[in-house]
């Protein structure tokens, strides 16, 4: 049977030796007292919880699924108890604001725990993950009364959150949404409309569920500039803060999905339900986007977590499964002897570890963005975070899905049946490429908006960091292969970036390049982080199995993955014409 | 709701205008009377049957699944009736030998009908598909008594077939299998063992099921040279040919799979069941491999069929779904206006149509291989078929799965739920990359065995055909882009092929290159076929929507897909060292 082990040692190596988290955090007054030993003990405990309490519910949760009966959603056996233990263990408020009862830890800690949750049980992890997103939106935009009424109970995990954006005819294009909100005259609103794809919209794990609902006020202009955000609790809150009367919102159906079966993805009906405005009228989309960076990082990490879980099973299986002979040997060998099995495992490993490094790098920048004393530094970090957010969301989930497919392939027919859990990973990972903005939308965000942000300053800054690493590692002759491969890939990225600012600067041209550009960008970013990881292994003189594996994986990435950058650059240079030439009716 | 329309016009264009099937078939006495009008009417009828009878059962079959109760397998509602109609319509024996009641049609016709079956209902298509495979093995290797007893009833579809190869510890490496067969003294054998992953092993659609079981005789040498093939009917056959006493074979369980839920994939137990030797003792694997070419072509076509079904839904959805604005336009546009949606659809389309062309080209060669009057021609065709079989199995299923994933992505969240059928296509397509030899095994077959076949003659012959097309189309200035792209890709293929014969000729080196090499090979083959298709469009002067779509798709493939060949060549040239350097314990 598959097991899950949180990769705490790999995580700590990145924080300590690659990204110098202690150095970065020491400059932030809010986190100056967070030391690595404390982080490690948190990660150890979280890993234990995920392995012992959540992973055992992953397959049973998939098989049983959440069920709707008479308007009540029943989560699978064990989920409510596991959530209670999670809440009571204090895991819901790790990075939340101490002002409302959170622990105020760095975002990097939250992100690493999120990875574990996702690897152990993706469906479960969405409950606290969405609650956190809702809390961030409320904290940033709601008035003091709403904050003090809702945040402490949500951060403590007593109440959970849900985000109600999508409607049947308004998905990627939220400007089309039709839900309405009418003033009731008492400062609250009547919210009416039907929403689909609402994760954790209804369930039996918490005594209240706080919905953030996008809707239009009566005087709203059309399109995205006429959308407002409303807080609609499942139970209205009494004066003493306890849940009171049932609000008029209800679950209409559960979606029948490819995966994340344990997660109740709801069709929600808001029937004149009472809600309160969060933020300014008609500025709801902006309020939602405040927390979008964090949510998209979270989704990227979901892809990463599932990929690592799949890797763990595939590697264990490959070392045990006897089938075929190793070249030049007699007798049956474990399939890890076969070059193609290694290709699959190294592809997984090389994208998992670099993906984790990229998201941790960004998480540290997010803490700088919000808490660094120096305004210029905050702005620079904000720029990097904005640039890297779509890359992380799309790259970690695309590579994550590809890893899950490879992890299934390693097991052959045994990967196609339930027994080993590998097929569930594929089904679960697939949603991460779709929700919170499809990966195509992420790529569009990168090429149409983020490249030109602040006149291109964040992009220049990021590419400058890569050049800096190439320079500072120049005397490591052991890493010439890695450096040369990265330099070449960076050259391709430079080249197409220049084109997107010149001959390919029209919107259709940029959009035609988008997905390939994001893949190229992520390959370069991963190559950069592998160079940093390999440099760190050599610097600290890690000659253990772990250190040697990292050096070997860096070499694999440089020689067998980074060359893809060349073809991607060619495809981008071909421009939009091959895509736009056919008339719509020809398809 | 999704619908399925068999792409008969595209199929006919390939047969008539691209591959000159009439010319090829006219040289084969067995098929000289098959004309295109007849083929077209068969395809029309088959397409109608698939669209009207089988496609409507695809989703309900997935949701209901086959169920096992008290040793009896119940296929989903409607399957038995649909099978009866299929059988009564005479669809089971299209390409089977007239000697035993088959219609003796060219394999190309069978392959095209197989594509439709797979696109409409993959689970259903496996029933007749596996029966056909069993028939081919019986016809090629069994004695006259077995042939006359079983073939007519199997070809008529009254009885179905199953192949029992895999055991829990013997999958890719069949040499490890443990099932035994002991002589009973009456010319028959007692077969004992447990097999897994047995498609159509037990069901309620036919009055008898004929199992071909691999097992070891008492005096069998170890490994693959000690395996024999036995025919074990579910019901022993009476002297008058009717089914008699129940044989001692039974279904132990149904596998719980990611997809093809309607197909009963069985754990089968053979408890001293009576069987008859097919072919020579200890030569069972060779007998199985006789029909493996056809089976692998069939699996490739399954990937193709599912990809096309997914494309049809994605294209229809993209033309209807209003979301976002087209660049430079006002008002909401169908998402087909977006360049990235077009990229996804064109990626699907360009691999579907070229894949169909490759498998049809090969099917025509298979008919030449078996029925051409000239021995040299037969041998040449056999070489091409042997070379292309692993390419077709792996490339059509890898591209097929990728297409299904893209077809799901086009629908966003609506692709992740059941409603549109796109997520089922992903789950169903996934098995085709795994069964009948994983795609890694196919790639290994290509690089380790097929490249050197007959001193490399088939490979030279195939590459020669590509050069010939480059030469014969040299004066079509409209196709310069396509020709240049193909020439360059062919250069990369030549380069790495030379390396695999030289510096990279060790087995580990070849296996390290295998999957990338097969992908590169298939890109070149597809590029070749797109050049032929585009040339045919220009030659016949097809200025319809269809013709223009084909020209546009050829351009897309040349500019946005073929450049991948460059990176693949680089990755292959990196050799095995990056894969083999890590010790097994490091993973």
Question: How are the SSEs ordered, and which strands pair?
Answer:
The structure is a homodimer.
Chain A: H1 8-18, H2 21-26, H3 36-54, H4 58-64, E1 67-69, E2 72-74, H5 79-88, H6 107-141, H7 144-155, E3 159-164, E4 180-183, E5 189-199, E6 208-215, E7 228-233, E8 235-237, E9 243-246, E10 249-254, E11 265-278, H8 284-320, H9 339-371, H10 375-410, H11 413-416, H12 422-432, H13 439-450, H14 457-472, H15 480-501, H16 507-540, H17 545-561, H18 564-573, H19 577-580
Parallel strand pairs in A: 3-6
Antiparallel strand pairs in A: 1-2, 4-5, 5-11, 6-7, 7-11, 8-9, 10-11
Helix pairs in contact in A: 1-3, 1-9, 3-6, 6-7, 6-8, 6-9, 8-9, 8-10, 8-12, 9-10, 9-16, 9-17, 10-12, 10-13, 10-14, 10-16, 13-16, 14-15, 15-16, 15-17, 15-18, 16-17, 16-18
Could you explain how this protein is built, in words?
Chains A, B: It comes from Acetobacter nitrogenifigens DSM 23921 = NBRC 105050. Chains A, B: Its cofactor is FAD. Chains A, B: Belongs to the acyl-CoA dehydrogenase family. Chains A, B: Residues 463-581 form the Acetyl-CoA dehydrogenase-like C-terminal domain. Chains A, B: Keywords: FAD, Flavoprotein, Oxidoreductase. Two copies of one chain form a homodimer. With 587 residues, chain A is an alpha+beta fold. Among the domains of chain A are: 161-282, Butyryl-CoA Dehydrogenase, subunit A, domain 2 (Beta Barrel), CATH 2.40.110; 453-576. Helices cover 57% and strands 12% of the residues of chain A. Chain A contains 19 helices and eleven strands. The first copy, chain A, has helices at residues 8-18, 21-26, 36-54, 58-64, 79-88, 107-141, 144-155, 284-320, 339-371, 375-410, 413-416, 422-432, 439-450, 457-472, 480-501, 507-540, 545-561, 564-573, 577-580; strands spanning 67-69, 72-74, 159-164, 180-183, 189-199, 208-215, 228-233, 235-237, 243-246, 249-254, 265-278. In chain A, strands 3, 4, 5, 6, 7, 10 and 11 form a seven-stranded mixed beta sheet that branches. A two-stranded antiparallel sheet of chain A has the order 1-2. A two-stranded antiparallel sheet of chain A has the order 8-9. In chain A, helix 8 (284-320) runs antiparallel to helix 12, helix 9 (339-371) packs across helix 17 (545-561) and helix 15 (480-501) runs parallel beside helix 18 (564-573). Chain A is globular, with a radius of gyration of 24 Å. The relative contact order of chain A is 0.09. The mean pLDDT of chain A is 97. Chains A and B meet through helix 8, helix 9, helix 10, helix 11 and helix 12 of A and helix 9, helix 10, helix 11, helix 12 and helix 13 of B.
């Amino acid at each position: 049977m598959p097991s899950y082990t949180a990769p705490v040692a790999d995580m700590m190596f990145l924080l300590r030796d690659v990204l110098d988290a202690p150095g970065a955090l020491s400059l932030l007054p809010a986190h100056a007292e967070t030391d690595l030993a404390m982080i490690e003990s948190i990660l150890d405990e979280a890993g234990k919880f995920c392995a012992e309490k959540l992973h055992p519910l992953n397959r049973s949760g998939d098989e049983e699924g959440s069920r709707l009966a008479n308007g009540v959603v029943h989560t699978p056996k064990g989920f409510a108890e596991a959530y209670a233990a999670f809440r009571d263990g204090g895991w819901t408020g790790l990075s939340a604001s101490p002002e409302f009862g959170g622990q105020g830890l760095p975002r990097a800690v939250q992100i690493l725990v999120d990875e574990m949750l996702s690897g152990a049980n993706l469906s479960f992890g969405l409950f606290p993950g969405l609650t956190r997103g809702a809390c961030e939106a409320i904290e940033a935009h709601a008035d003091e009364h709403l904050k003090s009424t809702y945040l402490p109970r949500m951060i403590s995990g007593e109440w959970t959150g849900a985000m109600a954006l999508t409607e049947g005819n308004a998905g990627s294009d939220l400007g089309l949404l039709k839900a309405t909100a009418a003033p009731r005259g008492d400062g609250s609103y009547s919210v009416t409309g039907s929403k689909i794809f609402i994760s954790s919209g209804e369930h039996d794990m918490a005594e209240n569920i706080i919905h953030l609902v996008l809707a239009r006020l009566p005087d709203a202009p059309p399109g995205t500039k006429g959308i407002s955000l409303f807080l609609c609790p499942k139970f209205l809150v009494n004066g003493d803060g306890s849940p009171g009367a049932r609000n008029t919102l209800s679950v209409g159906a559960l979606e029948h999905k490819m995966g994340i079966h344990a997660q109740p993805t709801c069709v929600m009906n808001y029937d004149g339900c009472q809600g309160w405005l969060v933020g300014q009228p008609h500025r709801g989309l902006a309020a939602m986007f405040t927390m979008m960076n964090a949510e998209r990082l979270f989704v990227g990490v979901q892809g990463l977590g599932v990929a690592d879980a799949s890797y763990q099973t595939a590697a264990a299986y490959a070392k045990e499964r006897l089938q075929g002979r190793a070249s030049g040997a007699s007798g049956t060998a474990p399939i890890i002897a076969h070059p193609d099995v290694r290709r699959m495992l190294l592809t997984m490993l090389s994208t998992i570890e670099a993906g984790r490094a990229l998201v941790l790098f960004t998480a540290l920048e997010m803490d700088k963005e919000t808490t660094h004393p120096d305004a210029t530094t905050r702005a620079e970090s904000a720029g990097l975070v904005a640039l890297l957010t779509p890359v992380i969301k799309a790259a970690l989930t695309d590579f994550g899905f590809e890893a899950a497919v490879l992890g299934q392939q390693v097991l052959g027919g045994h990967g196609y049946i339930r027994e080993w859990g590998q097929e569930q990973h594929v089904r679960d990972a697939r949603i991460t490429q779709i929700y919170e903005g499809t990966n195509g939308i992420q790529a569009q965000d990168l090429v149409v908006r983020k490249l030109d942000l602040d006149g291109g300053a964040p992009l220049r800054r990021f590419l400058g960091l890569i050049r800096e690493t190439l320079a500072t590692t120049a005397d490591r002759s052991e890493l010439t292969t890695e450096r040369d491969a990265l330099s070449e890939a960076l050259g391709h990225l430079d080249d197409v970036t220049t084109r997107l600012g010149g001959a390919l600067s029209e919107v259709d041209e940029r959009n035609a390049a988008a997905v390939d550009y994001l893949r190229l960008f992520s390959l370069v970013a991963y190559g950069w982080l592998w160079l940093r990881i390999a440099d760190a292994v050599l610097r600290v003189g890690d000659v253990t199995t772990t250190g040697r594996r990292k050096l070997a994986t860096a070499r694999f990435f440089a020689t067998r993955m980074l060359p893809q950058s060349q073809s991607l650059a060619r495809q981008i240079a071909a421009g939009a014409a091959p895509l736009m030439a056919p008339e719509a009716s020809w398809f």
